[in-house]
Specification:
The protein has about 700 residues and is mainly beta. The chain is built from ten helices and 43 strands. Keywords: Signal.
């Protein structure tokens, strides 16, 4: 009798739909989503905005495609976009080097050149859960497996939008694994009549679906392929930044595929996303997959009743058409580019009036670009006969290419004197050489170039930064050539100086189990604040070659700098350095903007006091495209770091809101805020200091 009662208790919260149980204990029917069943079919219908509703029908029968149907439209006239689809996710699993350098923060790894194995994710359908999280509903189908990984297929829909995320959420017990994944949707019989995409010249293209023996790969813009059926379209696209593990180059590596039997892993016709296993043929670190971490190998779909590729416009809206949206009172600035434009000019290659890399930045809405020239070519350590003309050419070309709303700034990654790799910027052209013989002066006047500096050690480097009001910071901190830095020189005079800004942030390494990007430098930002100096973190791209047809946006990030107006090259750009030095900026991947941020009515870079109870009032204005996931109020007391997570999963796509948080920060010395969305896009403020 006791066993019968126990069975009835469990069964009261678990409905048996067809052959496998469906757990609805985490589902909230008050959020506007309807869950029903008809035999072996689980129907999940959600409000998709514009008085429409989207519907996904999950087939619970084993041996049948897990997606029976996807529908969109008004309640009384929904259209069936597609039927009988299976997710197609392929894991290519290699070995991570955790010994030779810096553990999971390694970039210089040879994963792609060592033995690896490829596994398709299979699904046995052992159980289903429907879980409500704010405005999000997740359908979790357990029984997914791929080699050493196991977990579930998760389908997440978002109230207010026809957006859906498909993910193989999987973990492994095996240590030291690195993974790259391909993803898409396949059907035993092609459900599509036409396919649409944008070519790299921003032209919408299409092809009729015909029988083909193999799959075809394409370089496209906006990372999107669209399948069109009889009654609608489905766009398939990745998280715009999270999908790309860090590389030195932003080449467009044919990230879209369509056709039959992709990689000989999934029979049937499919459309989807892919990675080139060898990347840019340099260092190819792939994604981290530490043991027991739930990795989300995922992609997005957008449902539409429209045809002729029109749904692409709605996909593009999530990334502002792959541009950085203008924001009143701010100008966008990106740093650390080894374009080596000066070398191209000096070797007399044909140089157009507007080089391709300048077009690419202008097309992407970047107002200010800070170069890292002479990273390979060039003569930073002399001789004089080469160094001074090279610098003059850099200054002349930056001036020539700066006009309108675009400013190209000279800069280098000196990697000398301080330790590790670091970047620098001066507020005007400065002639300096990274070596000095004993009989040479530190500074001299030259009739052609003006003042010339020769630097022989770290003290002279700091003196130059002080005299010319320059700034320096650690590039790719704690990884690559800066492994161990700035930690190793945090007690040095140059680091403690106000001429040393702090460090630079890039989404590196990549770990798909984390709800954010670039944790490595975010952690460093907190550590530097606890060390006691007022340091800040700017965004850096750390890319080499750039052209308009590259996948620049996916690898890019920017700083929104508070500036009254764009500096003109001929007048110098001291206002930019002032904003950097004072922390008057925020960092963004582009999808989330933070127009205002105050703590007790003071902004980033400034100082305030907690009240008698230890409380502060944080006000944050945010704009976003993808639905938000979370905010983090991060603070420190000089020793520990404290993370206060604010759940934002009740937000819908394309919103703007002012948030107010009252937080007790007694005995804390600083505070900052991060905001992240469901695609792991993010933005973070600089620090407000507490007395």
């Amino acid at each position: 009798m006791r066993k019968v009662l126990l069975f009835l208790f469990v069964f009261s919260n678990v409905l048996a739909y067809g052959q496998i149980p469906v757990d609805l204990t985490g589902f909230d029917k008050k959020k506007g989503v309807k869950v029903t069943n008809e035999g072996n079919l689980l129907h999940v219908e959600w409000p998709a905005g514009n008085a429409e509703s989207g519907k996904i029908i999950i087939d619970l029968s084993k041996g049948q495609p897990v997606i029976n149907s996807l529908l969109i439209g008004k309640n009384d006239s929904q259209k069936t976009i597609v039927k009988n689809l299976d997710p197609a996710i392929i894991l290519t699993v290699g070995k991570r080097d955790l010994v030779s350098q810096n553990g999971w923060n390694i970039f210089f790894d040879k994963t792609a050149y060592l033995p690896y194995k490829t596994y398709p994710v299979t699904l046995d359908k052992t159980g289903v859960k429907v879980v409500t999280s704010g405005s999000q509903t997740e359908i979790i189908v357990s029984g997914a497996a791929a080699g050493p990984f196991s977990g579930s297929y998760n389908f997440t829909v978002y109230n207010g939008s026809p957006l859906m995320n498909v993910a193989a959420v999987m973990a492994t017990d095996v240590d030291s694994l690195a993974v790259v994944y391909d993803a898409g949707l396949v059907s035993r019989e092609s459900p599509w009549e036409n396919l649409f995409w944008s070519d790299t010249e921003n032209n919408v293209r299409n092809t009729k679906v015909t029988k083909m023996d193999t799959a075809h790969m394409m370089a496209v813009k906006y990372r999107t392929i669209i399948g069109e059926g009889k009654e609608g379209s489905l766009a398939v696209f990745p998280a715009p930044h999270q999908f790309f593990y860090p590389l030195d180059n932003a080449y467009n590596l044919e990230h879209i595929w369509y056709g039959n039997n992709y990689r000989n892993q999934f029979p049937g016709f499919g459309i989807g996303l892919r990675h080139d296993l060898l990347g840019d043929r340099r260092w190819v670190p792939w994604f981290n997959a530490p043991p027991k971490t739930p990795q989300r190998y995922n992609f997005f779909c957008l449902l539409s009743a429209e045809k002729d590729g029109k749904v692409l416009e709605k996909v593009k809206a999530f990334t502002h058409n792959d541009t950085y949206e203008p924001l009143p009172g701010y100008y966008t600035m990106s740093s650390h580019f080894h374009q080596e434009h000066v070398d191209e000019v000096l070797t007399r290659r044909p140089i157009p009036a507007m080089p391709g890399f300048v077009k690419a930045f202008r097309n992407t809405g970047v107002n200010i670009v800070h170069l890292g020239e002479f990273h390979g070519p060039g003569s930073p350590r002399g001789p004089d006969a080469k160094r001074w003309p090279e610098l003059k050419m850099m200054f002349d070309e930056c001036k020539r290419l700066s006009d309108g709303n675009f400013l190209l700034l000279p800069g280098e990654e000196p990697n000398n004197f301080f330790g590790g790799h670091w970047m620098n910027i001066f507020p005007k052209p400065v002639y300096w050489l990274m070596s000095r013989e004993k009989d040479q002066p530190f500074v001299e006047e030259n009739p052609v170039y003006g003042k010339l500096y020769r630097i022989g050690n770290k003290d002279e480097m700091l003196k130059l930064l002080e005299l010319e009001k320059g700034l320096a910071w650690t590039a790719h901190a704690r990884t690559k050539g800066s492994t161990g830095f700035p930690d190793k020189y945090k007690d040095e005079a140059f680091y403690k100086s106000d001429r040393f800004l702090g460090a630079a942030w890039k989404a590196m390494p990549a770990d798909l189990s984390q709800p954010k990007l670039g944790k490595r430098v975010l952690d460093l930002m907190d550590d530097m604040a606890n060390w006691g100096q007022k340091k800040y973190v700017i965004a850096e791209a750390d890319l080499f070659r750039i052209e308009p047809n590259y996948e620049l946006y996916g690898h890019l990030n920017v700083n929104y700098m508070q500036l009254d107006q764009m500096p003109k090259f001929e007048d110098g750009w001291q206002p930019l350095l002032d904003a950097m030095e004072k922390g008057k900026f925020f960092v963004s991947t582009g999808e989330i903007l933070l127009p205002s941020f105050t703590v007790n009515n003071v902004t980033s870079g400034e100082t305030t006091k907690v009240d008698a109870k230890g409380n502060v009032e944080i006000k944050l204005n945010a704009k976003w495209t993808f639905p938000l996931n979370r905010a983090e109020v991060i603070s420190g007391d000089g020793k520990e770091v404290f993370h206060d997570v604010v759940n934002l999963n009740d937000t819908e796509a394309f919103g703007e809101k002012s948030f107010t948080f009252t937080k007790n920060l007694k005995n804390r010395k600083w505070v900052r805020v991060e905001v992240w969305d469901v695609a792991a896009n993010g933005a973070f403020t600089q620090i407000v200091w507490l007395e």
